[in-house]
């Protein structure tokens, strides 16, 4: 899963300094990949800066004339949870949340989000809403002669103007509400996680969503939420056709899916019909190839279903992307998890294998299992050894991506071609002393945090301040146990 949002409280100057420091101190294994990531990460930071500046500038009204009926403009529902490759996609919700919602490790929909199917009318209305907002932006000269990041600066005034017009006309103006009411005693880490959800976006959110998609080229669309394969092929075809007719630049449609749905609920003809309608790729949360791990985690799917589902998707002409979760077997099933996952990858031969290292979230059933002594978390080194087993054991052609902040190492490339390079990265890490492994982890996690949020919240900044020096961060005086706690604190707020 993946979510995007603006950081509410960046300590910007300090954070930029930390980012430079973390980059300078970053060590042997990352290198050029980190530099590329930093450049990439700077983009959303700029967007945030522009948004802040313009918020002040746009206290007054924007003065514009448009042929679009402003009163009719409304926000539309977007998919907060989506794969990282779909971060800049146009998204539409065809269902809401996850009907299964029982995986022990998964925090995503555990706080009261209820599954529902949306009617065709509702979805088509959202497509119309997105189209109207896209048209309005163009009428306002946004994207002319081309879309740029500075276009974000025009959105607050634009949204404000629409709301004023609607209010004057006596219309009920929709503003954002929290996705779920969290009780006052909720774990702060969980509250942080849930603050990402945007169940009912505002007009400005919807405008920004369309603009982000336009800025990225306007070619991709994600249809959510958790399992698009439960939809009837005719339903999906109608939606995809409508989106194509309204947004002809879109070339790729993707969904999340469950392998069990592909294996048991959908015929090959169904899946072929979905592919013929324009669906291109399915992202499966495979997590593990071990049936014991899947059963313990209450995944509701077997390794046989994983293989059958992936093969069926590929046979239908769809691209198959799977997520696997290093660490999911805990200490007890670590090796089995690694070898069995490699076995399933070899049998299923997905086009993409994406790594999502296990992070145990508060108030999940897995956290309870941890507290009850039913599950023992793998240390980072053991998780990296799992990766070594998996990568050594995969013999089919596939692409490996470490596109999640939960991962310690940057492993991007193709198998089998890049196996040697992957193993070198892994072995370089494993050869570090225990102390240097911790420093490596600290640097990597801090880098990811700064990249994800563009800054540090006050409490993390305070925690790090004893180690800040003019020339950078010096963690040499930081005892191991404190360093571990700092790493844990940073990791706990990274979005997977
Ligand atoms: S199927 Fe996916 S979204 Fe649903 S509970 Fe499991 S991991 Fe979470």
UniProtKB/TrEMBL annotation:
<keyword id="KW-0408">Iron</keyword>
<protein>
    <submittedName>
        <fullName>Coproporphyrinogen oxidase (NAD)</fullName>
        <ecNumber>1.3.1.-</ecNumber>
    </submittedName>
</protein>
<dbReference type="InterPro" id="IPR006638">
    <property type="entry name" value="Elp3/MiaA/NifB-like_rSAM"/>
</dbReference>
<dbReference type="Pfam" id="PF04055">
    <property type="entry name" value="Radical_SAM"/>
</dbReference>
<feature type="domain" description="Radical SAM core">
    <location>
        <begin position="84"/>
        <end position="397"/>
    </location>
</feature>
<dbReference type="GO" id="GO:0016491">
    <property type="term" value="F:oxidoreductase activity"/>
</dbReference>
<keyword id="KW-0479">Metal-binding</keyword>
<dbReference type="GO" id="GO:0051536">
    <property type="term" value="F:iron-sulfur cluster binding"/>
</dbReference>
<keyword id="KW-0949">S-adenosyl-L-methionine</keyword>
<keyword id="KW-0812">Transmembrane</keyword>
<dbReference type="GO" id="GO:0046872">
    <property type="term" value="F:metal ion binding"/>
</dbReference>
<dbReference type="InterPro" id="IPR058240">
    <property type="entry name" value="rSAM_sf"/>
</dbReference>
<keyword id="KW-1133">Transmembrane helix</keyword>
<dbReference type="InterPro" id="IPR013785">
    <property type="entry name" value="Aldolase_TIM"/>
</dbReference>
<dbReference type="InterPro" id="IPR051198">
    <property type="entry name" value="BchE-like"/>
</dbReference>
<keyword id="KW-0560">Oxidoreductase</keyword>
<feature type="transmembrane region" description="Helical">
    <location>
        <begin position="27"/>
        <end position="43"/>
    </location>
</feature>
<keyword id="KW-0411">Iron-sulfur</keyword>
<keyword id="KW-0472">Membrane</keyword>
<dbReference type="InterPro" id="IPR007197">
    <property type="entry name" value="rSAM"/>
</dbReference>
